[in-house]
């Protein structure tokens, strides 16, 4: 199995016309590297012994059986704990393998654990879900918890309700939207997930509850051990409570005993801890009184303990008929039912979901719920006919061969494998992306905003932001004839020009498909980005006429930013001013704008920065690296070293927070935007991840390299570039080199299949900056004799944008 850590390496060939960055995970064979075997690591979340509940037993069994049968998957157990209700020592005894604890009613504990799991760089998270084991009403704290997890999520639903409350249904639907794979133990559970909870059928797998593999037909031997030779043994095991229906079996005993006086009914298991806390042993005591009143107290044997699995199995082996008379019919899973069938026991049960499916085909006997007469008749008939009893036991044993732990472990490993992010594919860094995706989103008016899949969605019209970016792309795009470049550049430039509202002295942003404006004044961000595009065009357009046009409009627009203070608007405008100053160092408007912007951003940083928070604002938003990039470039054009230093320091800070423990790029997700900074350590939501953030990381790293060359920036830019090609939390390949399209981002379920203008342009512009940065970094390494093994060395020519590492 491949571990999650991505370790890119370079196939260096000085004779080659281009180089390929190989994004194989460590351990994958390729390019002469030997395979390295290392286990996958999966965070397994559920209750765990010594806590007494069925989920705890299941989680413990999974951990034990995977260690035995799947050594290629290492499980880190995170146990849900309820210290107020049932303090438990997880260090000793059954909890020796616990990696961490989650206090089930503590929101902070969920947040801390999610961060810890993310930092541990596990390949996947496997969560056991039952409403009663998570904190909040109906266990709703699980929703916030899964939102924080970056690794692919595998869910096991132990209960799928056909008649949930509104809150229960909302919780399930939320979990379904976050899951990469879903496991249920019954076909009905699968069908309900699809029909009621809107789960995708292809993500759901039915894996029967695991069961032990023991020889058949040893009941008499174990009866001797337990002092029950010659008896006919009925048995029920589990935590006692009114939902078990045990009173119906006791009511049936007089008739059973009258026909078979050798019968004993063994009730094995402790009273449920929640019932003990509220009512003590009143339920058990009531059952004992009932047995006495009916005169069968000597035929009921009590074992008031929660047994560990080996002893439970020994006791199950000693029984002839196993009873599960549950009155509720929605129970999707019963571990002890699975155990009893796998050990070859005849089962008499009410037709709850698990029993109905597991006992189909005369593997057991199903009876109507709530009927002591039905229990007496079913048990009596089996004991009356030893041949039939033996036949059912053999059929049960045969059915159980499909549920024994080796089979469960095999199916579970396959389930996890299908959830894991696949390796990122090889990407030639020098390959020029096609532009058909850009032009398919464009018409004579400009570039449309959104798409459904790859088809432009005209309902949302156009926006200034995207057309400004598209103009920037035409300044640096390669592989275009002069006439084609000019045609499209004129289209996008015309949109920018038409967006200007001279009455207000501001740009509009959104336009309907019928070319009517949606507003008189666009956002400050869109105005800042328009000025950036003008400066960029004045610096980098291959067409002299367009450079002069851009310079003229820059002069017209520049004064409006004298009163703009919003950080990103200032940053975008400052980047345009820096571009203009690289063309005309004496440009007074650009100089004033760059100095004002640099002072504002630097002051903002000084006011917000704390020992544990090195950022410009008290929260993170979109396009975060642009603030650092703008301060670096302001320092470069204004000769302010302290601004450069601050910009590089903050870029390092945000780069650290956008790098996963496994080393791949993990941009701040849109769900984190606007969350208070002091809580970010716990509250960062890894999704949705957007191409705009990867582009910003690459271009900011390029500016940092231009100011102070450092291998760190080339490595970070390469991580962000690989993000487009699958080196991300879902292994989702977003970019298509052939068309130049990019999907709209990474969601908990993989790629957002839409290809909007912002995403396409982010990928296109990121490519040109990435190529220019790596050309510069590789040539610097060649001069110094160093080797850049994590990036490409291109001999295929330089990027069109060389002045300062900008597209």
From TrEMBL:
Stretches of the chain forming a coiled coil according to its record: none
Pfam families: Glyco_transf_4 (PF13439), Glycos_transf_1 (PF00534)
Keywords: Transferase
SUPFAM superfamilies, A to Z: Six-hairpin glycosidases (SSF48208), UDP-Glycosyltransferase/glycogen phosphorylase (SSF53756)
GO molecular function terms noted in the UniProt entry: glycosyltransferase activity
GO biological process, alphabetically ordered: carbohydrate metabolic process
CDD domains cross-referenced by the UniProt entry: GT4_mannosyltransferase-like
Residue ranges of every copy of the Glycosyltransferase subfamily 4-like N-terminal domain listed in the record: 54-210
This protein's name: Glycosyltransferase family 4 protein
Source organism of this protein record: Novosphingobium flavum
Organism phylogeny: Bacteria, Pseudomonadati, Pseudomonadota, Alphaproteobacteria, Sphingomonadales
